[in-house]
Amino acid sequence: MINRECGVYQTTYQSDMALYPVPLARYASIGSLVVLALIPALLDSHSMALVNLITLAAIGAIGLNILVGYTGQVSLGQGAFMMVGSYAAAIATARYGVPFWLGLPLGGAVAAVVGAFFGIPSLRIKGLYLAIATLAAQFIIEWGINHSTWISGGAQSTIYIPTPTFLGWEINTEFRRYYMILPVAVIAYVAALNLVRTRVGRAFIAVRDRDVAAEIIGVSVFKYKLLAFAVSSFYAGVAGALWTYYLKIANYEHFTLVTSVQYLAMIIIGGLGSVLGSVFGAVFITLLPIVLVYVVEGLASLFGFQYAAIADFLANLRLIIFGALIILFLAIEPEGLYRLWGNVRRYFRLWPYSY
Amino acid sequence: MGFFLDLTINGLMIGSMYALVALGFVLIYKATSVVNFAQGELVMFGGYIAAALVTLYHLPLVVGVPLLLGAMVLLGFAVERGVLRPLVGRNVISVVMVTIGLAQVFQGLAAMVWGAQTINIALPIRLDPYQVGEVFISPINVVAAVISGMFLVGFVYFFRKSRMGIAMRAVANDQQAAMAVGINVRLVFAVSWAIAGLAAGIGGVVWGNMLGVDTHLALVGLKVFPAVIFGGLDSVPGAVVGGLLIGAIESVAAGYVDPYVGGGTKDFFPYVLMIVALMIRPYGFFGREIIERV
Predict the structure, then answer these.
(1) What is residue A203's predicted lDDT score, i.e. its pLDDT?
(2) B279 and chain A: CB distance < 8 Å anywhere?
(3) What's the CA gap between B285 and B272, in Å, rounded?
């Protein structure tokens, strides 16, 4: 939000440390909540599906950013932890009739336990080695779920679940699903913002910046590393469970290594170590292929090609642009979209007297 | 016993190819401290170029293979120059992610230029296996083992005796000191990438012949991680031993475990081993102990 803090004087520490210290920012955040709640009134069902996908992705991205951006532990396993949450929720709902609002935290909890377990190698390794260890988590979890019929439900490792209901309402349209996802996403967002302001969040940042120094000032590095894995996996699990209730199907193919890479790309393009950046990244990566389709379709009709003829071309182009964007962002703006947004804000803060 | 030997020997031969790719990986890490997640994609690219030259343009092998190797060296140079150089000195996450991005670009590019369908590379090697006692050995495996063995020996010689090899070892040991005594560190970086490209190119041809060339060839890269972690990220002998071990172990494990769990052991077992190895010796069995204990 573009806030002007002139005339705002903090007189207590409490008000200085508030989440939104400037009144305008407070009103703006309430306003954006209202806007978010009213989005369905403005969009058709197709656009609504896109908004839902973005909101879902944002939850996972925020979780990964807590691990990678705030605690400095590279993880290539976010997709696997989402898979755990997804299957946990699907099993609970499909076999034991657990309602979705209980299935969500359940999926998160199971994923948190599994995530913390795979975080144990971080006791001895970090950086590159840890990235590769989490890559192993991705493969081991994928294999484990696929090969134990009790979890995966047999053929194609797919579990179908009934349409979720809430207080007698069937959540069966994109609009209703939006109201299922949005509260979770808002809670996830606010919780993450608050988490990084607490003792735990500061410990995370201390571990990221210099773990030896953190240890010396009394931060239990191992405990907070595992905690970061658990929190991040909890987010992943909730996101995975939401995916499952959204699609009414749990399938491992939605959460492969490609998914993990995409989430990592989200937080890098969005901005490491920034909650809002994760959301930017989620929007960007989710919309990228769709915008690309529109652009190429437009160009194709301009030059008189059939869309079907270029479908393959498009899929490959998408990969290339995805990869090239990651490289470009890292080379040119390593702090991501959040930094760009910050630049815009800074410009307008002093505008028109920018000196 | 015959079954076990069969699995082990064939596994070792596949492992020699892992060792080849792992060598490129280790080399880049040693010289430039970059973990190259695009190593498998380099192999795939090598396979594609070979397939294009030999199968699509019908060049004879004696012309095609040197062309391929030249192209791979150039590709290695280009990657170092264009993608990695701007990122020198950045943190781990950036460098990991940039090679992942590179991998995506390679995937898209290869499929875009040469199409998604599988292309075969025809090598003049006979198909039916030799039988030694109870062990069946397919000729392409032997060729693969011989070629990668030759490359490894040649590389070790180069690394120990040539001026460039000595410079590379110096840079790997201490970049600052190497720079101070007048070694061209940038050139060393570039040469490391070029040799990695070369190893990947050779891997691409042989693997392409075994499996056919398509984008799935890049999955080889994922097999390399357990191998190098096992041996140590910065150890050339470690890469060789790790590659051979992972090849043999996954083959044996797949032979004995697959019938009970319905397949897939090959893809998963090396990673379990890797996690175990990480817990016991985080720096690998041959690596330098430079990792900080947390």
Answers:
(1) 93
(2) yes
(3) 16
B92 touches chain A (CB under 8 A): yes
CA dihedral (A112, A121, A282, A83) positive or negative: negative
Chain A environment of B267 (Cβ under 8 Å): 139, 143
Q: Does B49 touch chain A (CB under 8 A)?
A: no
Q: Which residues of A touch B92 (CB under 8 A)?
A: 74, 127-128, 131
Two tokens at B79?
């990657």
**How high is the mean pLDDT of chain A?**
85
Q: How far apart are CA A76 and CA B92, in angstroms?
A: 13
In this predicted structure, the answer to whether residue A280 has a pLDDT above a threshold of 50 is yes
Instruction: Judge: B279–A121 Cβ closer than 8 Å, yes or no.
Output: yes
Q: Which residues contact A51 (CB under 8 A, 6 or more apart)?
A: A39, A43, A178
Q: Are A133 and B274 within 8 A, CB to CB?
A: yes
What pLDDT digit, counting tens, does each position of B87-129 carry? 877 777 788 889 999 999 998 898 888 877 888 887 777 777 7
> Which of these, B191, B196, B141, B198, lies nearest to B168 by C-alpha position?
B191
Half-sphere exposure of B140 (CA within 13 A, CB side): 19
Of B104, B279, B294, the CB nearest to A222: B294
Residues of chain A with Cβ-Cβ distance to B288 below 8 Å are none
pLDDT tens across B66-86, in order?
A: 899 999 999 998 988 888 888
Return the pLDDT at A62.
95
Paired with A251 in beta bridges are A158
Residue B122 burial (CB < 10 Å; 0-12/13-18/19+)? exposed
Collapse the DSSP code of A169 into the 3-class scheme (helix H, G, I; strand E, B; otherwise coil) and give the result: strand
Q: Out of A211, A222, A312, whose CB is closest to B116?
A: A312
Range in A33-47, A158-172, B193-207, B245-259 with the lowest mean pLDDT: A158-172
User: pTM surpassing 0.80?
Assistant: yes
More confident residue, B265 or A114: A114
- Find the closest chain A residue to B289 by CA distance: A125
The alpha carbon of residue A181 is apart from the nearest alpha carbon of chain B, in Å, by: 29
List, for residues A189-248, the tens digit of each pLDDT value: 999 999 988 899 999 999 988 888 888 998 888 899 999 999 999 999 999 999 998 988
Among all residues of chain A, which has the CA nearest to that of B36? A128
